[in-house]
C-alpha cells in the first residue's frame, strides 16, 4: 500500500480583512464584464464575476492571493445590484501555487485544474515539486470548504505533476472552472423562446423573464426550478446529466406553455 505524505499544521480561517473599507464609487451591474472582481458596499466579501454571469466566492484571503496580488482592480456595486447576481460557488486555489491540507486529513495535496487535488506520496516527491522549502508552501483549507475540491489520482512520482504547467494553464478563474457564456431561454407571456434547446452536457442555461408578469421554469418532476422570477429577473443552472428536461411555468396553463432542454 502506498503511503502519502502527512504533517501536522494549524488551521486558520480569515475573512478578507485586508480589503479597503471605503468605496471610491459604485458601478451598475450592467457595466460588469467577465473576469471582474466585485464586492458590495456593506460587506467585505469579494467575488469573481464569471463568464457564465454568476459570482464566485473567495472563501478567504489565502485563496484570493493565489490568484491576485492586491485589491486594486475590485469594482464596487450597490448591495442591491450585487444581490441580483446569482452565486455560482466558491473559488478554489490556483493550481500549482500552494499545496493544501485539512485538519481532519493528515495527507498533503497538490492542486490541479478545476479544484482537483492529488495526494503527494512522500516528502521526497514534495521536495522535488516545491523545493527545499516545500513544508512552508502548504495551506490549511477549512474543513467546510474542502468539499469544493475533488479528489484526483495519487502523485507517486514528481514527473506526474508539473508545478509550472499547472500555473501556466490556469490563466484565470474562467479557464480553471471552464466557465462559458450561458445559453439563454427567454420566458415570455405565453411561450419560451426557444421552446426547445439542445446543449452539450455541462452547459449553463440562463432563464430570463422578459414578460411583464411573474413567471417560472419548473421541471415537470420538480427536480429543479427557477422559482418565481419577476419581470427582468433571471436564473442560471448548469445541466450536466444527459437526457431531455421538460418544464413549464407555474403562472400559465401547461397546455399553453411548456419547454424542453435536450442535454447531449
Describe the structure in brief.
This protein is of the alpha/beta class and 264 residues long. It has helices at 61-67, 79-83, 123-130, 163-169, 173-177, and strands at 37-39, 47-49, 55-57, 74-76, 87-90, 99-102, 105-111, 116-119, 138-140, 150-151, 183-187, 192-193, 196-199, 203-209, 218-219, 234-239, 243-248, 258-263.
General description of the model:
The chain has helices at 61-67, 79-83, 123-130, 163-169, 173-177; strands at residues 37-39, 47-49, 55-57, 74-76, 87-90, 99-102, 105-111, 116-119, 138-140, 150-151, 183-187, 192-193, 196-199, 203-209, 218-219, 234-239, 243-248, 258-263. By secondary structure, it is α/β, with parallel strands linked by helices. It folds into two domains: 1-179, no CATH class; 183-263, Immunoglobulin-like (Sandwich), CATH 2.60.40. It starts with 36 loop residues before the first strand and ends with a strand. The model is unreliable at 6-15 (pLDDT under 50).
List keywords for this structure.
264 residues; alpha/beta; Immunoglobulin-like; five-stranded mixed sheet; 5 helices; 12% helix
Helices and strands in order:
Elements: E1 37-39, E2 47-49, E3 55-57, H1 61-67, E4 74-76, H2 79-83, E5 87-90, E6 99-102, E7 105-111, E8 116-119, H3 123-130, E9 138-140, E10 150-151, H4 163-169, H5 173-177, E11 183-187, E12 192-193, E13 196-199, E14 203-209, E15 218-219, E16 234-239, E17 243-248, E18 258-263
Parallel strand pairs: 1-4, 3-5, 6-9, 8-10, 11-14, 13-18
Antiparallel strand pairs: 1-2, 2-3, 6-7, 7-8, 11-12, 14-16, 15-17, 17-18
